């Protein structure tokens, strides 16, 4: 295949851009699924169970648990993007993978 190297580089770049777009939304939904919400840790969730059993209710400033709470409550720049932007990210991921598969042949 002519220009195989260029196709591979282009495919990787498009794939990485797509992943960068989708990652914040995926993280926001993941945190919601395990029990981190806009109002704090959801009662009865996995996050609440971990906070109670493993952390003894004490959250250390700067810990991954505190960061997860902050992200879910909107205290950091990571949040779910509007759905059209997320769809664009998914399309870019599919295009990137398709280009890489085509270049590998």
TrEMBL record:
As recorded in UniProt, coiled-coil segments are: none
This protein is called Uncharacterized protein
Family, per entry: Belongs to the IFI6/IFI27 family.
What is the organism field in this record?
A: Exidia glandulosa HHB12029
**Keywords noted in UniProt:** Membrane, Transmembrane, Transmembrane helix
Its GO CC terms are: membrane
Q: How does it sit in the bilayer?
A: Multi-pass membrane protein
Please state where this protein is localized. Membrane
Its primary localisation, in coarse terms, equals membrane
Residue intervals passing through the bilayer: 7-31, 83-104
This protein's record includes keyword Thylakoid:
no
């Amino acid at each position: 295949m002519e220009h195989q190297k260029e196709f591979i580089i282009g495919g990787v770049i498009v794939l990485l851009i797509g992943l960068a777009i989708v990652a914040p939304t995926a993280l926001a939904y993941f945190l919601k699924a395990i029990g981190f919400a806009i109002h704090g840790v959801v009662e009865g969730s996995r996050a609440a169970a971990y906070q109670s059993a493993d952390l003894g209710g004490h959250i250390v400033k700067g810990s991954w648990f505190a960061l997860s709470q902050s992200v879910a409550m909107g205290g950091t720049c990571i949040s779910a993007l509007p759905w059209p932007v997320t769809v664009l990210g998914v399309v870019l991921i599919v295009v990137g993978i398709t280009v890489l598969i085509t270049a590998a042949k």
